[in-house]
Write the structure tokens for this entry.
Amino acid sequence: TECLDFNCNRRITYETAQGYNTAQFYGVDKKNGQDRYVAGTQDNGSWVSPANPSQTTSWNKAPSGDGFEAVWHYTKTNQLIESSQFNNLFRSDDNGASWRALDLPGDGPFLSRVAGSQQDPDLIFGVTEQGVIKSQDFGDSWQTISMPVGWRFEGLATPIRIALANPNIVWTGAGLRENSEVAISTDGGTTFNLISRYSGATLGLITNIATHPFKDSTAYFLFSQANGPKIIRTDDLGETLEDITGFVTNQEESTNGFPDVATYSFLVMPYDEEIMWAGTEIGLFESTDGGQSWAIADNGLPNAAIWDMKIVNDQIVVATHGRGIWTVNLPELKDYQPLSVDFLAPQILLDDAAFAGRISGEVSLRSAADSSQITFDFVNEGEKKRIEIELPANEADTRVRFDEIITEITGEDFLEVTVTISSFSGSSTLRSLNTQVIHAVSYDPITSYWTNFDDGLRDFALLDWSINTPLDLESGALSSPHPYPNLDLSMAVFQKPVVVTANSQVDFDEIVLVEPGDSEDFPSDDFFDYCQIEATADFGKTWVTIAGYDSRDNPGWLQAYNRDENKASVDLYVHRSFNVSDFFNEGDTIYLRFNLFSDPRLEGWGWSIDNFEINGEVTPVVEFEGNPLEYHVLGNPVSDQLVIDWQSAKTINLNVTIVSSTGQIVLAEKLLINGAHISAWNVSEWSSGAYFLIVNSGSELSSVKWIKL
């Protein structure tokens, strides 16, 4: 626009024009078997080409802001991933026609890194401030790998690459100096160890990492600082390092022709390892003698910054920062395929969520092995424990299901279990691991229960939830985090199994201040954050949703959320009631859990539950003349028969009175209670409504409300 005034009428509208070869690309990849490309541009998102594009072909836009690195699946060629800043990744399963966002743990660098492999195309890596992240299913699920002290996440860009010659070797790091070091994995990204530092010069940040097409011990670390080495090579897995650009130290000029400019990308030709291409900020430089000398490559590629280069099939594809995407087909690359790999790391895929101590899933033994082993490692009450499952020799592409129940756990905390699959072949060992959380449950069924969360009962397993008195509330409650974080799943599991009766009712009071969605369809991407009540009758194999809702479920909640999403008050409590016999059969034994899910966007105060009861009200333990007494109504609300379950530590005489909501006494009896006792009265002819059971020992008095249907 020509002026800043909003009333200005001298405005210019800009449109995308065809024919200008000026796009600034960061990353690119090519579809195996077809000339189609996916690439990311500065400020202008990512783009996917149609087949066989020309200089004037229109590409299809993908959903991103800045576009960065991209990966096209080498065998499932309808799948591809593109990235935006800070690890916002999107995956397409239909050649770029539609996209879905991937959920990555942690915060990523501005320049998102996505490392892929042609030999193991489901395997991809990224980096976050928490460490390396790894996916074995092309981005559908991720695990965070703990990194050694010395490896450092760099917020602008932290490179990570899978070795071209061996997908079991992974390199990552932001520097080759103290406190910013490169780490290597030789077991498919399961564990990492630091390599040597470079002592010949003071180095800046690593711009990129490249590897050798058929020597898996060789890697190249690219730099862009002035007056110093630009490409440092190791050919022994990082034991030794050498500069191949003629700087060696922090000198101003190279001794072998390499320019003193930023270096972004690097290739070694698989048909002749003496030929090397280096993409710099001023164009392509080439060595034909293994890095002993360098000269600008006068091969028709324009002199622009080159951020990425890849070899796919017989083609080299180049992403320039200012002159678009360029490709060249070399006759020397005819019939080129990546180096075959004999021994791939096994994979372990865990089912979505464990329940109690059950962990189930599948291991994929992708290569033949002499034997394999599944281990479950966890710590309970300070004691390290391990469970092992031995597997015999296997052929390639063997899959094994497992379903392990760990019963040696106690308490209310969720425990993290590391599940590892290790395969052994000769002297080689490869492994993969994943983590799952488990928790303790009771195995003694109940038919009724009550707690106000002030009575000391703590019968819930808690994943980021707590039992406390939340700020601004007046009594104890079962609570999610206040406020709850973005992109999170927290839960509370009722640890006691409940026997379903003909009228199994669950009641509680709740406050729900979570982000309201745009859709009534539950669950859906447009439901955003939500509270979910679930139950299982098969010990966690399948779950039935009882209810799913957000702040829109009650007008008072929605008004409070819109007024201040992080402030609750006692008057926001609303009663919820449901009958589990509407979802399960009489006689089933079920467990209940409460989930709070949040998406990556807005959040709120959260969810609190109070006065939780099952099948009737239960009094807290009451002291009658020094005698602890507990009693509750079975099957509340009541239809034909009022049944009271009494528990007394010793003999006690009671006067029992039942009063209607209008104050009329409808029953009065004397009872002698000693230990466990059941009282029953026929109330089939009584009027519907609320009644109060009043218990009087002569010196102590308590009461409980029940409902007659």
Observations:
- The first strand starts at residue 25 and ends at 30.
